[in-house]
Amino acid sequence: MDKDDELPWLSYRPFGNLVGNLTELIVKEQNWQPMIDVVWNNRQVNDCSGKNVNKRDFMRSWTHSRTAQHISIEEVLETGVKLDGERLFEIAEPRGKFESQVLSELHMEQFKSRLREQDKQILQMWYEGYSLKEIAIQVGFKTPCAVG
């Protein structure tokens, strides 16, 4: 497809209208207008010129640096990321969630072992999503506030 070819489902003008309308909606939805106004009011001629030395140097340093430390994915997975002796973030141990789940289940079993049978039934029904009225009927409570 050439750059001059039009898409069969949308010609140039409706496509421009679509992009324009979407841009307005996104700016409004994300509340970007105050930020756009500040940038517009503080713009410099050099910002729009391709000959700005500062911009060119910034873009060069952004994409390439002779002193940047390269980090392998394997190193990140094994040790996390450290730059200049500081840990940037830690990757959660995959077994950690499983271990905490098992410990939670063990604590729950210990707690349930101390309950009477009726209390266990109430707890189980509450966990399964039954309403208080349904639990009261099933367990056999006859108080007006529970059944009413």
In short:
With about 150 residues, the chain is mainly alpha-helical. Helix content is about 60%, strand content about 5%. It has a two-stranded antiparallel ribbon with strand order 1-2.
Structure, explained:
There is one protein chain. The chain has a two-stranded antiparallel ribbon. Helix 7 packs antiparallel against helix 8 (132-139). Helix content is 62%, strand content 5%. The radius of gyration is 32 Å and the shape is elongated. Among the domains are: 1-50, no CATH class; 104-147, no CATH class. It is built from nine helices and two strands. The chain is mostly helical.
Q: Helix and strand layout, with pairings?
A:
Layout: H1 12-29, H2 33-41, H3 45-48, H4 53-63, H5 73-79, E1 81-83, E2 86-89, H6 94-113, H7 117-127, H8 132-139, H9 144-147
Antiparallel strand pairs: 1-2
What order do the strands of the largest sheet run in, or round the barrel if closed?
1-2
Major sheet characteristics: 2 strands, antiparallel
Model regions low in confidence, pLDDT < 50 over at least 5 residues:
none
Output the radius of gyration.
32 Å
Q: Could you state the oligomeric state of the chains shown?
A: single chain
Total helix count?
A: 9
Helix content: 55-70%
Total E-strand runs: 2
Shape: elongated
Query: How much is the average pLDDT?
Result: 77
Reading the helices and strands in chain order gives HHHHHEEHHHH
Amino-to-carboxy terminus distance: 72 Å
Tell me the strand percentage band.
Answer: under 5%
